[in-house]
């Protein structure tokens, strides 16, 4: 077998191991799916009245869903760091590293199984969204493309999280640390509010924040944009799909080699 | 006989400046093919770091090491193909069954799906886990997890095996079970390097023992050779009244074959002897004659503590105590 087919086979083996865990620990799946449901319901009913139609002329639920999708899949990617830190702590990475397996397979397997997690969240959120009145107004192909942009971006972020997990090493700390970064990242954006309303510094951050472009891309592809509310005239939000994919590629170009290198020199305490 | 494992002048330093810990400080080690070497030492001595360097988990800062003639730094992938490793903590997946754990390892060794399944079943049977094989590991006892972890190290039938404290944390019965399993492996010709904190364990399993302290091998030999260095058996007396310590010292000096050790705090007097139980009887008689009231008296075989006391002038307990206050090597290690 060639090196590449070894890597693929090993990654499949590791992915399978991680997916078995999703199946055997139902609590994990319950919480993976409950929090997106909670977010959709909270935002749809709490914020919709306050910043909804009467203020913007836009159906807030339509506006909101893509933002919640983006926030949830980005948060979902922290699970990659959490799980790797846990595997490291339990000596599991030591065991894998003494096997003649491909060094990147462990990380590919981890990030791939976290894509499955995110797909589950997206489906659950989509169904919840449909229940509260959100609709896809484009066509199925575009909607699928929207979901893909979200998943690709989240996949790239999970490589950052992989690196963080291998450096920080304590699962709980990985969670808290990433929360502090991801919360502002997903709020200082066009996810839940119109960025025009933000102070200048935050506004510019929101314009160029990739979470904004991912959200904008999903909105457009789901057909949830509104002519009364065009995106700001900045390149990132005028070309949201391209800008999101550029970020995803750039993040992976940096963090895939960095994480693999870190993995190869990491060992338990 | 060729050497399956060879290490020369290994150095591994963690941290820098004041926090610098020399986990390995010029460690030399040889394991001849088909033999068992026990690496004996207290926590923080550098045992785990040694295993990690030899199994390619850590790159040493100095020195060189080879396994089966392959350099661990130059060709880690080559080393991995000839070794099996079981770490200090049973690295088995709680949520997989025993079978799934071994099957996964087999696949990662690229045995092929069918061969991986067959090997997994075979090992479960060999390690007395056949009945539990299809249950999730989270229901396993500590001993069962350790056996499964060891089975994982054997999936590809490696000629060289590394076991890091294979029985630490196990109850006495599981420990005996583990010894039996390891003993059988070794009889089939596997080369084994194991680490342990217990002289008894090294004694039971190893052909040769290397005593390690502060990242260096400070003594090496067969169990008997080491015990001879320590002075074999010793008589240990605890006097009821501290005022009797001087007289007890004198009496034991008369029957011993080495220097008498006195610990004022515990009122304990110790002396190396030869001759077994008869010396003990003699000691009782003479102490009685001298009017010394004894609260405890025993003939002891050497322990790891004795080996350490003799080789380093400190007890293993003291070493552990001082290293609890600073980060121990194992904690910094990583």
Automatic annotation (TrEMBL), chain B:
<protein>
    <submittedName>
        <fullName>ATP-binding cassette domain-containing protein</fullName>
    </submittedName>
</protein>
<dbReference type="InterPro" id="IPR003593">
    <property type="entry name" value="AAA+_ATPase"/>
</dbReference>
<keyword id="KW-0067">ATP-binding</keyword>
<feature type="region of interest" description="Disordered">
    <location>
        <begin position="315"/>
        <end position="334"/>
    </location>
</feature>
<dbReference type="GO" id="GO:1900753">
    <property type="term" value="P:doxorubicin transport"/>
</dbReference>
<dbReference type="InterPro" id="IPR025302">
    <property type="entry name" value="DrrA1/2-like_C"/>
</dbReference>
<dbReference type="InterPro" id="IPR017871">
    <property type="entry name" value="ABC_transporter-like_CS"/>
</dbReference>
<keyword id="KW-0472">Membrane</keyword>
<feature type="compositionally biased region" description="Polar residues">
    <location>
        <begin position="325"/>
        <end position="334"/>
    </location>
</feature>
<dbReference type="GO" id="GO:0016887">
    <property type="term" value="F:ATP hydrolysis activity"/>
</dbReference>
<dbReference type="InterPro" id="IPR027417">
    <property type="entry name" value="P-loop_NTPase"/>
</dbReference>
<dbReference type="GO" id="GO:0005886">
    <property type="term" value="C:plasma membrane"/>
</dbReference>
<keyword id="KW-0046">Antibiotic resistance</keyword>
<feature type="domain" description="ABC transporter">
    <location>
        <begin position="5"/>
        <end position="239"/>
    </location>
</feature>
<comment type="similarity">
    <text>Belongs to the ABC transporter superfamily. Drug exporter-1 (DrugE1) (TC 3.A.1.105) family.</text>
</comment>
<keyword id="KW-1003">Cell membrane</keyword>
<dbReference type="InterPro" id="IPR003439">
    <property type="entry name" value="ABC_transporter-like_ATP-bd"/>
</dbReference>
<dbReference type="Pfam" id="PF13732">
    <property type="entry name" value="DrrA1-3_C"/>
</dbReference>
<dbReference type="GO" id="GO:0046677">
    <property type="term" value="P:response to antibiotic"/>
</dbReference>
<keyword id="KW-0547">Nucleotide-binding</keyword>
<dbReference type="InterPro" id="IPR050763">
    <property type="entry name" value="ABC_transporter_ATP-binding"/>
</dbReference>
<dbReference type="InterPro" id="IPR005894">
    <property type="entry name" value="DrrA"/>
</dbReference>
<dbReference type="GO" id="GO:0043215">
    <property type="term" value="P:daunorubicin transport"/>
</dbReference>
<dbReference type="GO" id="GO:0005524">
    <property type="term" value="F:ATP binding"/>
</dbReference>
<dbReference type="Pfam" id="PF00005">
    <property type="entry name" value="ABC_tran"/>
</dbReference>
<keyword id="KW-1278">Translocase</keyword>
<keyword id="KW-0813">Transport</keyword>
